[in-house]
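Contributing new records

If you add data, match the layout below exactly. Sequence lines come first and carry their own label; structure lines follow with theirs. Keep one chain per record. Anything else will be rejected by the validation script.
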Amino acid sequence: MNQQPSAANPVSRILTASLIGTTIEFFDFYIYATAAVLVFPKLFFPAADPTSATLESLATFALAFFARPLGAAIFGHFGDRKGRKATLVAALLTMGPSTVAIGLLPGYASIGIAAPILLALFRFGQGLGLGGEWGGAVLLATENAPAHKKAWYGMFPQLGAPIGFLLSSGTFFILSKTMSEDNFITYGWRIPFIASALLVWVGLFVRLKISETPEFMKMVSKEERSKVPFADVFVKHTAAITLGTLATVTTFLLFYLMTVFTLSWGTTALHYTKSSFLIIQMISMLAFGLGIPLSAIWADKYGRNSMLIVATVCIVLFGLVFAPLFTTGSLGITAIFLSIGMFLMGLTYGPIGTALAGIFPPAVRYTGASLAFTLAGILGASLTPYMATMLAHNYGLAYVGYYLTAASIVTLLALVGAKKLMKQQVE
């Protein structure tokens, strides 16, 4: 039987609340990623040579991915026990202050070793908040969705990724074009971090107006809540958490190769200007944004697992042409290369939230989906910019592509193994 959104949660409010929160969260996350490449090596790690400083900065970038599973476990527990709405608000209030604090943090020249230590601490806070944000936003959408449109509803939180990235890159592009390099390094980069506080207030306003999801209320009325969701996920749903994590690895790896790594490599080894590369990255985000709704339509029509398998096969092949497309020296061809990669990213990213939510029962769904997603982040994204930089320096760009292809094969095998699981909790 098709479940319809309740009168208390009209469709527009559901989709807006799920989209705006992830947009804010990903905006916060991406401004760090951009600054980790363009600013932080000079500001927080000035004692190291340029390559080492970049690697140290990327290591702090990776830290948030290790915080995300902790956030998934903490917020997932309350999301499954106390409700989706309150937990989503708490997650937003965790990441927002951490981001603003980074924008106010003095550099190494002012407070010495305390600067990179505090940077790592606030970065951990960012990861903690995002670990609880994503799963709740997906459930807010999918648990209010009709059965035949779950992928369509579930893709709205996913749209927060390209929108957040466009806002982030656009902000840095404007700043880089309107101020000198010295002023940008001194204070300009801080503006988007501090300004994110305004976005958080907007997100809170929208989310405080939504009601709890019907599926959670039904679970409460039947007294089906798990006492310890984290334990139940690993004890009773071992196959789901394992296969769900591996099935999501390539989603993360592809994204951070096409954003953080390509920005770093393109503006150093390939000598593109910072502003020109940010422009073509923003163009590629449009391809990303196009792929997400298309994949949701196809997932609702042909099945989430089938859509994800097709997308992953395409990524396997893309890894084999990664280096030839990225080393032409042509900005136009590089823009096409980024757009192809990000379109494939949209095809795998669009249905992944709905697919992960669909393999866990409501009693552990917030925890299970969030943990699978965040654990995949550790495997597929935390060290990806670092590993890709090391591979490219030591063996050449072709091995970065092979890295992507190898990870995609692992994901493909997991998707095949999870085919039955993805049918069990669909309705």
